[in-house]
């Protein structure tokens, strides 16, 4: 049986994939990649029967050592946008050097992306990584994820904050997004890993069943909370100055701005989806997702 290594194992996606896969196939040999083998999360994985491999994306030699003896790599894209290009090259080169046969890469599903778009730099790395994997001659499966549904509460804040403002205030215009809960993307990852051979050299667009605007999000929140939640899509300068005046850190303002403009431009209004085929059901309706958080 082929041996699987799951990167980003101490993060939300990688951890969930590892546990879904273990529950699906108790005999599947599964290793997880962690940056600190003595961390509480790493020790917990060891107690649960996972093999621990230690490396981070910045260390090519450690990656090559960690990848040795691995057949299939579930490669979670890096979270450090500024360093992601170098880190992803390190992972692909180490995978080739270590003799990995098949990479499943968590890419991004896009409707369109103009080189002039503020999001272009952050998203282009996914396209480049796909090209690097192909150029390395490795078998691949590209799991192109839409935005996590969890981004919504990250942008809007907890219920107490929402109830204080009673407004969804984001520069997202009338753009639609096919959000997907992270747990569903993890479950799909495990489903594909459990029968990886049939998914070799395939590309899957993983977009949610519901496509929603933030105006619709505000409407759902009004229904859920019993309070009138308004939606305002401000101009960028107004949004940035308002966020700054409310003490929001600059890096968060920048992130909300570029993603908001991308949503407004329809970047995440992807036309096709393989989600239902790989998950075995439709994705969780947005109103139910929001109810879990804001009820």
Question: How are the elements arranged and paired?
Answer:
Layout: E1 4-6, H1 12-24, E2 30-34, H2 40-47, E3 51-54, H3 60-67, E4 72-75, H4 84-98, E5 102-108, H5 120-135, E6 139-145, H6 151-156, H7 159-165, E7 167-169, H8 182-194, E8 202-206, H9 214-225, E9 230-232, H10 236-245, H11 250-264, H12 275-279, H13 286-294
Parallel strand pairs: 1-2, 1-4, 2-3, 4-5, 5-6, 6-8, 7-9
Write up this protein.
- By secondary structure, the chain is of the alpha/beta class.
- The chain has a domain of 184 residues: Rossmann fold, CATH 3.40.50.
- Helix content is 46%, strand content 14%.
- The chain is built from 13 helices and 9 strands.
- The mean pLDDT is 96.
Describe what is shown at a glance:
This protein is of the alpha/beta class and 295 residues long. It is 46% helix and 14% strand.
How far the N terminus sits from the C terminus, by CA atoms, comes to 45 Å
Low-confidence stretches: none
Overall geometry comes to: globular
CATH hierarchy: architecture of one domain = 3-Layer(aba) Sandwich
Q: What is the string of helix and strand elements? A: EHEHEHEHEHEHHEHEHEHHHH
The number of E-state strands comes to 9
- Fourth CATH level, the homologous superfamily of one domain: NAD(P)-binding Rossmann-like Domain
State the secondary-structure class: alpha/beta
Examine the coordinates and then state which fold CATH places here, giving the name of the CATH topology of one domain: Rossmann fold
Query: Share of helix among residues?
Result: 40-55%
Return Rg in Å.
20 Å
Summed over residues and divided by their number, the pLDDT gives a mean of: 96
Q: Quick one: biggest sheet? A: 7 strands, parallel
Count of DSSP-assigned helices: 13
**CATH C-level class of one domain:** Alpha Beta
Strand content: 5-15%
